[in-house]
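Postdoc handover notes: sequence design on the structure in folder B. Input tokens:
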């Protein structure tokens, strides 16, 4: 395990306005918490799905304190963390940790806007890295399948110029395939790419290649890497992409997305190829 300290060496001290009063940290009864709808979001379908997911995986080690403000009526307005509070309630938790400040409604709304607008979103690669370190099943399985093919599921992004063949950055796509039961097709395609004349084309290991070849292999019943390898030696997906973009200009294809037409074209070509060489899986 590697660690690093908080290091601001070489950085200038930032000047700004007043720091404000230091908030206090307390456990608050959920029954004392309210939501000010003048600035808080309504909880809709997607929000309830997220709340349910948090509740199912509830663990105090994964629960960060909410941000709240006192109110004249003795209750506390939730500024940040209403999903976590709802999830805790669904698990029968009665009290949650909170950073409490004394703010008026305008200050509360400003705090809500700043907290939700200044979050640095984690990339899929960063999320995968954390999940793998935590031995989360989906991350371990994705990493294992890709490694079996002699490739590497990347934990960080790179510039286009520094990416190498065999490095896979489309974490979400790989996870989607595996969770849908497409492990065999993914492994077959990755091994086939690695054995083909296209092995040095980095696009084949990401959206262009995997996004089209894995579904096509599954639908065509291809389970042998050498079939994929032979197919790629005879079919250049870059040229297929150019052809598809021309098709998109035709009246009968207007309004269709590039990805849907491209994936359909790859499937047709792969079925033609397996028929020509007598593959019957």
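Designed sequence:
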């Amino acid at each position: 395990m590697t660690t690093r300290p908080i290091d601001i060496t070489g950085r200038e001290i930032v000047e700004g306005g007043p720091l404000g009063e230091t908030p206090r940290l307390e456990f608050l009864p959920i029954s004392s918490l309210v939501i000010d709808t003048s600035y808080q979001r309504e909880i809709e379908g997607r929000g309830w799905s997220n709340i349910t997911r948090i509740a199912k995986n509830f663990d105090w080690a994964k629960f960060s304190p909410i941000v709240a403000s006192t109110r004249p009526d003795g209750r506390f307005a939730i500024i940040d963390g209403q999903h976590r509070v709802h999830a805790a309630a669904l698990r029968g938790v009665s009290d949650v940790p909170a950073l409490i400040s004394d703010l008026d409604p305008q200050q509360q709304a400003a705090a809500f806007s700043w907290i939700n607008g200044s979050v640095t979103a984690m990339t899929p690669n960063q999320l995968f890295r954390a999940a793998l370190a935590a031995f989360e099943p989906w991350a371990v399985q994705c990493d294992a399948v890709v490694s079996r093919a002699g490739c590497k599921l990347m934990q960080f992004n790179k510039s286009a110029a520094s990416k190498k063949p065999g490095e896979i950055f489309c974490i979400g796509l790989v996870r989607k395939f595996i969770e849908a039961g497409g492990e065999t097709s993914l492994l077959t395609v990755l091994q086939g790419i690695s054995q083909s004349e296209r092995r040095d084309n980095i696009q084949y290991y990401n959206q262009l290649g995997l996004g089209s070849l894995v579904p096509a292999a599954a639908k065509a019943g291809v389970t042998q890497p050498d079939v994929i390898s032979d197919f790629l030696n005879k079919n250049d997906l870059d040229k297929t992409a150019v052809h598809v973009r021309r098709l998109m200009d035709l009246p009968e294809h207007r309004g269709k997305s590039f990805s849907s037409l491209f994936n359909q074209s790859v499937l047709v070509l792969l079925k033609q190829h397996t028929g020509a060489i007598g593959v019957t899986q």
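Context for whoever picks this up: The chain has a mean pLDDT of 91. Don't rerun without checking with the PI first.
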